[in-house]
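Q: Please design a sequence for this.
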């Protein structure tokens, strides 16, 4: 639906731009005091047909990104110790920031890891700016970062963007070393 709307808007903008160019170069527009008002009117039409839809799509995309709920567990200062460090299962924590573009890209990989490891490894998200107490234990951590915890200790840390299959290999290797 959205791609059809974008295609229709783009087609309208091309037709309007072509018509405005042809209308202005055709010579059929009479010269005189009304020519300036016609050019001004066409400027506003072009503005409405080109700029307004682009701004509208950007606003809608931003709103959708904010309202799309993540299926990941959420960790914070109040539950990090009990849910991560004291967990009987291994826990993969994605340390990120909501506004960070690379973090948004990494979230899809994290959700895929959650699906691949359901029942074996808990996977969750920790917003670093909302958790200053927890972040005191991880100085210099840059988002996005992945940390795997098991038995109250950190098994490994992987900063940056990673493909889910690469992360899965690291998870499997780290857990096999721990006898899990």
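A: Design:
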């Amino acid at each position: 639906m959205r791609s059809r709307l974008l295609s229709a808007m783009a087609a309208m903008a091309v037709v309007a731009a072509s018509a405005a160019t042809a209308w202005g170069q055709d010579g059929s527009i009479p010269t005189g005091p009304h020519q300036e008002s016609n050019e001004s009117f066409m400027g506003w039409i072009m503005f409405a047909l080109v700029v307004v839809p682009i701004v509208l799509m950007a606003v809608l995309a931003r709103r959708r990104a904010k309202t799309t709920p993540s299926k990941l567990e959420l960790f914070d200062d109040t539950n990090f110790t009990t849910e991560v460090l004291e967990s009987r299962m291994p826990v993969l924590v994605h340390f990120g920031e909501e506004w960070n573009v690379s973090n948004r890209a990494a979230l899809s990989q994290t959700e895929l890891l959650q699906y691949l490891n359901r029942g074996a490894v808990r996977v969750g998200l920790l917003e670093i700016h909302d958790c200053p107490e927890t972040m005191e234990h991880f100085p210099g951590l840059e988002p996005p970062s992945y940390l795997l915890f098991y038995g109250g200790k950190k098994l490994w840390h992987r900063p940056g963007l990673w493909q889910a299959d690469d992360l899965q290999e690291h998870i499997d290797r780290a857990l096999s070393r721990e006898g899990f």
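Q: Thanks. Anything notable?
A: The chain has a mean pLDDT of 79. Helices lie at 2-25, 35-67, 80-85, 101-116, 132-135, 164-177.
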